[in-house]
Amino acid sequence: MFFHIVLERNMQLHPRHFGRNLREHIISKLMKDVEGTCSGRHGFVVAITSVENIGKGLIRDGTGFVTFPVKYQCVVFRPFKGEILEAVVSMVNKMGFFAEAGPVQIFVSNHLIPDDMEFQSGDMPNYTTSDGSVKIQKDSEVRLKIIGTRVDATEIDKNISQSRPKWDPAGSHPSRFFCIGTIKDDFLGVINDPTTI
Amino acid sequence: MEKGGGGKGGGVGGGGKTSLKSIPASLGGKDDNSAKSKRGRKVQFNTEGLSEGKFTFSSKSDGKFETTYGGLTKGGKGDKVANGAKVSVVKEALPLELRVEQELPKNAKCLMDCEAAHILEGIQEQMALLSADPTIKIPVSFDKGLLYAKTHSHFTNPQAVKGLFQSLSEHGVTDGEICVIANICPETVEEAYAIVPSLKRMVDERICELFQAKRSRLNDLLKEVLIQLAKFKST
Prior knowledge:
The complex is a heterodimer. By secondary structure, chain A is mainly beta. Chain A has two domains: 2-77, RNA polymerase Rpb7-like, N-terminal domain (Dna Ligase, domain 1, 2-Layer Sandwich); 84-196, CATH 2.40.50.140. Helix content of chain A is 11%, strand content 48%. Chain A is built from two helices and 14 strands, in the order βαβββββββββββαββ. In chain A, strands 1, 2, 3, 4 and 5 form a five-stranded antiparallel sheet that branches. In chain A, a hairpin with a 2-residue loop joins strand 7 and strand 8. By secondary structure, chain B is mostly helical. Chain B is built from twelve helices and one strand. Chain B has helices spanning 2-11, 30-40, 45-50, 100-103, 113-130, 140-151, 158-164, 166-170, 175-184, 189-195, 197-209, 212-232, and one strand at 109-111. Chain B starts with a helix and ends with a helix. Residues 1-95 and 207-213 of chain B have low confidence and may be disordered. Classes of the chains: A mainly beta, B mainly alpha. Chain B: Keywords: DNA-directed RNA polymerase, Transcription.
């Protein structure tokens, strides 16, 4: 689900940026650092809508860097347990299928697919009902319920996170949201198929 | 081992909710250790099975559990049976409910997909100007988010839709629930209850607290809202 929230972040700026365009530099650095990232608490920061306030800068002892506390508004996308949403299937295999809803990837295990749907391998692997009326394959739209969520630091960033500077708050390094979903409940499953419940 | 032996003499009858009490005190070796370890952990059968780390679900329930992807689930109170271990008491798991407000900061404003699409399209226009700067890359999640919001925005006038839900929010329906209903756009009241199980609970509470009239009021309201929603939906 999308949310509009206010977040705060401390931006560190190198002295070479001080001058007339200080504010623009802070904002562009904020956008570079934050847009596209994901945190466990807020989900994906899809876009920054406005900067509410840039506080007074504090000079770091021992270096010339200055820290500015910035308050900004942004649109975030965060999936929730218990949420129902519509996703597009991206991959099907015998363990289940992967679907994408916006920037979030959701996995639906074959245990959470109705029992009457069987996996059919082939050029276009899919799940089909016994009478062939309902099919789940790549690019199908399905309505699913999220039953579990997890934030995972991507492989590359695990190394970076160990040497993360102290001023970088925990939630901002690039990571990904994974979800587990189900289509076994009422009113879930393939969309635009009149035979689905 | 010795401690376990001493404790076992006294405690065999204690484990009321499990089948352990049938193990006679004379059994030694493997059974001893497993019995001791079970008792030490307050006998949570589920954790035994789950320690294998298997990603299994029973088909019966869609209960509330904290899952980690491909990992273990901690045995909780209202838990389901993971792989058929014998448990004498199985509580009926509640349907998974949306708990938005508890997890996000208080000032979070829930956006319907159509509202989000509106905002993101505005930002996209600004992005076009900013992309002149080669160091600024438009992140992948923005594109995906925008595409998702656009494909799922059924309504051209988000304000009117919000007004529609006014009566429901007076009845205690939360913002998060309203957004889910608006995003999914259910066709019947039953579908709405299936999508937002907490609505049903609210209805049940109303039966207990107030009169039947209140329940049918929420039903009627929902019906009206859904009919209006269908009208607003652009083809």
